[in-house]
Specification:
The protein has about 325 residues and is an alpha+beta fold. The chain contains 12 helices and 12 strands. The strands form 2 sheets. Strands 2-3-4-5-1-6-11-10-9-8 form a 10-stranded antiparallel sheet. It is elongated. The relative contact order is 0.13.
Length: about 325
Amino acid sequence: AMYDAVKLQLKKEDIGDKYKWEAVYQNIYQVCDFKRFAGGFGYLDGLPVSVTENAVTIKGSLSKYLYENNIRTLTLDHTKEAIKRLGRTLNLPMDKADVMEVEIAENFKMDNPPELYISKLKSLGTSHPNRWDSGTTYFPMKNKTLLRFYDKGKESRQRGKHRHKRESCPLPEGKKENLLRYEMLFKRATIKQVFGRRLKACDLYDKHVFWQFIAEWFGAYEDIGKISDKLFDIPFEQIKTTKDLEDWCICIANTVMNLPNFIKEQLFKNRENPQDIDAQYHKRIQDRMKKALQHFEQQMGQSDLVIELNKKIEDYLTWKFTESPDAYDKN
């Protein structure tokens, strides 16, 4: 997992008295001047940049800025390099910029077309997948976070056919690969919620900050309810009693959403008239669900597609955490 798209905003007060928006504007490929106030919009090596007398805002993919595509993984060192290069080119202290948005993303080479895996993702809390025409499936969440899954190989091939001249980024040619991309977009409010403070651009290449983002990214994936193929292959002998039937129904509900998590985070935490005894009721319900899920554990096997996707993500994170250039314990 890596940083991809970010939105950075550098305010005039963080730059100092020497800030002259016209000088910054001269350093970018200019597209249009703003009509209502002083400033303009343009591009810097494919990155959209807006310049006004009060702030400079940059929004786009650091990976595309540095590598010309976002298929290669951006390391922390390269994140630092991208931010420093932006600063040098624009002659601005980009390290001081406020982080308004961050996207954490990674591509996974799968054995089958990505659509098959995406079709197994059922729900996330109260959020159900929305499918855009472009083949993107996304889960909008309450706290303005957004999860997206799509066929990256297909997107890259389509983009290669019709790209803007000003962002002419060559994409790696090659055979048709089954590339599944998982992205999680953190808006400013979520960033503050996760870290207890606002982040500056220099925080992005801090290892602890980075790994906190990765933990949130992986945690959100784990919370998605995945459809089980074996769920309805139960013989009558296994649901003869009403208790068996209850257990089976709890297991079916759990494939639609992470049921224990939903009851705890949505229902229990948001109760209208909280009483002390509620905690006991809640524990009983959680125990009951746990027993039901254990009862049909063997029959509730995940589909081979979900098993493969889980393994790819977990193996990748293990490598990332222990051996990659961004490994947690490496200096």
